[in-house]
Design a protein that fits this description.
It is a single chain. The protein has helices at residues 16-27, 63-76, 158-167, 190-198, 271-281, 309-331; strands spanning 6-12, 32-35, 80-82, 87-93, 96-101, 104-113, 118-119, 135-137, 150-154, 174-178, 202-205, 208-215, 219-226, 229-234, 237-240, 244-245, 295-297. The chain is an alpha/beta fold and 332 residues long. Strands 1, 2, 3, 4, 5, 6 and 17 form a seven-stranded mixed β-sheet that branches. A five-stranded parallel β-sheet has the order 8-15-9-10-11, covered by helices on one side. Strands 12-13-14 form a three-stranded antiparallel β-sheet, with no helix packed on it. Helix 1 (16-27) packs across helix 6 (309-331). The chain is elongated, with a radius of gyration of 22 Å. Bound molecules: flavin-adenine dinucleotide. Residues 12-18, 35-38, 43-45, 47-48, 51, 53, 86-87, 114-117, 138-139, 159, 162, 247, 299-301, 307-310, 312 line the site of flavin-adenine dinucleotide (FAD).
Length: 332
């Protein structure tokens, strides 16, 4: 529950960026509260079936395992967590940052946006009727066993490739990837393409879109359009991994975003914004500081960031010395 307590740092988002910032901040005695709109912590990374490019895990690590280790580490340093809490507004009040949710206000001397991105919706009529009934946004749940199923994965980037490879372990299932572009190599890492070629039960259908879904209570068939020709195929499962967008419309207008909605920080801010900032605060913004003093940003939501777990972790850790310096300014 919100309280009148003022934290040194309030972090919005418990993905890898928020969690690593919490570990870094609390280990430097910066009193930190982490808020997430989802009960299950860990962000997108927490949904990944196998992360194979995070340093230190040569055999890969599941997303839930990695992010729960990060959460445990943050807890060990006394980070406070509250979830589910969805932040819907930000206000600067007497040099503090107030974050508003339906349940009330949380206040920090500084705040960090680690809100990541959200799955892009697949716009097909009637799709919502089958959500949780054969249609899933994101990766398959690793605890679910799939037997003798016709599985489709929509998307042509790494997260779709990972899901297909994960599902192909159920050798009595067929997995078909539906890719809108001409060549999955446009967006997918080479190591995943190699695995997909190796697996006998994965096929890739390019230049294809899902245009219809049908069933009774559960998904039964998909209508696909490939290079202008439509056909209807039997389907038991549809996983949708077609990319993601930042959900930043709720931020106040003065928090500068790029044309895709990602939050801009530091030297990447427009020249006139930096000049206004300098005039108002007698300093230039820190590298991860937004156009609003004391409001920092890290991870996928930051304009120009690399959308990977390791880079989100690096970004979250990298923001801590800046927050330290920012807090010291206020104390002087
Ligand atoms: C299925 C899948 C597989 C992936 N596999 C890999 C991989 O193998 N290797 C790799 O490097 N990367 C992978 N990625 C990408 C990686 O997970 C992301 O780059 C990383 O999680 C970004 O971390 P983040 O902390 O910036 O944001 P996120 O992980 O997106 O976390 C953001 C958090 O903020 C919360 N939030 C958002 N808005 C609010 C709000 N208003 N109020 C409160 N809370 C809010 C969200 O609920 C979420 O928990 C994968 C992504 C997906 C979806």
């Amino acid at each position: 529950m919100p309280s009148n307590e003022i934290h040194d740092l309030v972090i919005v988002g418990s993905g890898p960026a928020g969690l690593s910032a919490a570990v870094g901040a609390e280990s430097e005695h910066i009193d930190t509260l982490v808020l997430d709109r989802k009960r299950r912590l860990g962000g997108q990374a927490g949904t990944s079936s196998l992360i194979e490019n995070f340093p230190g895990f040569p055999d890969g690590v599941t997303g839930p395992e990695l992010t729960s280790l990060m959460t445990d580490q943050a807890l060990k340093f006394d980070t406070e967590f509250m979830a589910p809490v969805q932040i819907e507004g930000i206000e600067s009040v007497n040099g503090l940052i107030a974050l508003d949710s339906e349940t009330g206000r949380f206040t920090g001397r500084a705040a960090l946006l680690g809100c990541g991105v959200e799955y892009r919706p697949l716009r097909v009529r009637n799709l919502a009727a089958y959500l949780g009934r054969g249609v899933t946004y994101g990766s398959p749940n690793m605890n679910t066993v799939f037997e003798d199923r016709k599985i489709y994965v929509v998307g042509g980037a790494n997260s779709a490739g990972q899901a297909a490879v994960h599902l192909s372990q159920y050798t009595d299932c067929t997995v078909e990837m539906l890719v809108r572009g001409q060549d999955p190599a446009e967006k997918m890492s080479g190591y995943l393409l190699d695995k997909i070629k190796e697996r006998g039960n994965i096929s890739v259908r390019t230049e294809t879109e899902v245009v219809g879904v049908n069933g009774n209570k559960c998904l039964k068939e998909l209508t696909l359009k490939t290079r202008g020709t439509e056909d209807t195929v039997p389907a038991d499962e549809l996983f949708i991994l077609i990319g993601a967008d930042p959900r930043t419309k709720w931020l106040p207008e003065d928090v500068v975003r790029d044309k895709l909605g990602f939050v801009v920080a530091g030297n990447n801010l427009p020249g006139e914004t930096i000049e206004e900032f300098l005039e108002k605060h007698k300093r230039t913004p820190f590298a991860h500081e937004t156009s609003r003093a004391g409001l920092f940003v890290a991870g996928d939501i930051r304009s120009g960031s690399i959308k990977r777990v390791a880079s989100a972790v690096g970004d979250g850790m990298g923001v801590v010395p800046e927050i330290h310096q920012y807090l010291a300014l206020g104390r002087n």
